[in-house]
Amino acid sequence: MGLFDIFETSIEGLVANKFRSFLTMLGVIIGVVSVILLVSIALGVKSEITGSIANLGSNLYIVMQGNKNRIGSARIGVNRLKRKHAQLISKENSYKVIPSPTVSKVSAVKAGSLISKSTLITGCEPNFSLVRNWEPERGRFLKKNDVDSERKVCVIGKTIEKELFPNQSPLNKFIRITGKKFTIVGIMEPKGQLFDMDNDNQVFIPITTAQRIFGINKVSFIFIKVPDARNINPAIKKTEEILSSHINPEDFMVRSQGETLSVFEKITSILTIMLGAIATISLIVGGIGIMNIMTVSVTERTREIGIRKALGAKDRDILLQFLTEAVLISLIGGIIGIFFAYIGAFFISKANTIFNFEISFFAVACAFLFSFFMGTFFGVYPAYKAASLDPIEALRYE
């Protein structure tokens, strides 16, 4: 028999038992949908996390209080960081780094009768927007004169604009922070979320003003930008040397965005592999289903196999016919599974607001190829069983 005849006979066998064929495909369909959706979700989460971290800048590192060798010390250690340390880093670091110290506090922000609770108030210097690569969408950012004069001016994030100034421009209007009136001079471009933190729910004020109204003389962080990303590691080492000569090395630590990104990439890669493995089990179960149903089919069609062999069909023809049926069941199930995966993706994308969800072509290709492999692998045994039947015994089968 030619390959076309074998293919045609296999199609006829599937059509003749539509319900059984569908039930056999069902395991493959569920497996393919699971693989595509779970792997796509994992890849979407990974892309969102790495994108958020990378958005902070690959040539950026941060000095903060605490010791990286002590768990939790960054929170409970004594803060000894001051603005002068940022100036020392700028002056003594030979890699032309740009440090920007900040003061961070959470406070309520009021505008008339409207209140935005738990807003991050960031006291910073004018170079903050340069270091963080974050510019105003409208208006201006803070100026040197604002810092020197401790002026009560501010630049707000998009979330604050939406919550406190709906349907109106907030420029030159006022908000109150800890009872103090601040004039809005700019609105920052949207930055989005980093994990569960809304970067746009933020107000920027001069660092000197922040230290005065909050009654502190320390800084929370020192963001440092390196002009050439290739120099980030030696720049970090130099920064540590500079700070160590002025404060105890156990009172500060330095973290680069690349280091943070590397950690989360490892975590999300493990998550992707784990979810992919869980979903793959569904496909394997579907493959076992193909083997079981095809084995039952061989038993039911024993007499048919005997007649075909008596008419001249070779063992190879019988083997290829049943193997083709198994592969067709798997491939058709895979195609249907891909179709339902896209339907599922549509509803997930409508309901999901945390990250940008899209079907991964990699996941689709892997699921389809694996379904083909499952059909071939689990179809071999029933096909071999059918091909090895003795024609005389098969004709006697009732």
Query: H/E element string?
Result: HHEHHEEHEHEHEEEEEHEHEHHHHH
General form: elongated
Work out the strand percent: 15-25%
Gyration radius, in Å: 33 Å
The level of helicity is 55-70%
Task: Tell me, rounded to a whole number, the average pLDDT.
Answer: 82
Summarize the structure.
This protein is an alpha+beta fold and about 400 residues long. The chain has helices spanning about 5-15, 20-55, 75, 85-90, 130, 145-150, 160-165, 205-215, 230-245, 255-300, 300-310, 315-350, 360-385, 390-395; strands at about 60-65, 100-110, 115-125, 135-140, 155, 175, 180-190, 195, 195-200, 200-205, 220-225, 250-255. About 55% of the residues lie in helices and about 20% in strands.
Report on this model:
This protein is of the alpha+beta class and 398 residues long. It is built from 14 helices and twelve strands. The protein has helices spanning 3-16, 18-54, 73-76, 83-92, 128-131, 144-148, 158-164, 207-214, 232-244, 257-300, 302-310, 315-351, 361-387, 391-396; strands at 60-65, 98-111, 114-124, 136-139, 153-156, 174-177, 180-188, 193-194, 197-198, 202-206, 221-225, 252-256. Strand 2 (98-111) and strand 3 form a beta hairpin. Mean pLDDT is 82; it is low at 71-75.
Produce the secondary structure layout.
Layout: H1 3-16, H2 18-54, E1 60-65, H3 73-76, H4 83-92, E2 98-111, E3 114-124, H5 128-131, E4 136-139, H6 144-148, E5 153-156, H7 158-164, E6 174-177, E7 180-188, E8 193-194, E9 197-198, E10 202-206, H8 207-214, E11 221-225, H9 232-244, E12 252-256, H10 257-300, H11 302-310, H12 315-351, H13 361-387, H14 391-396
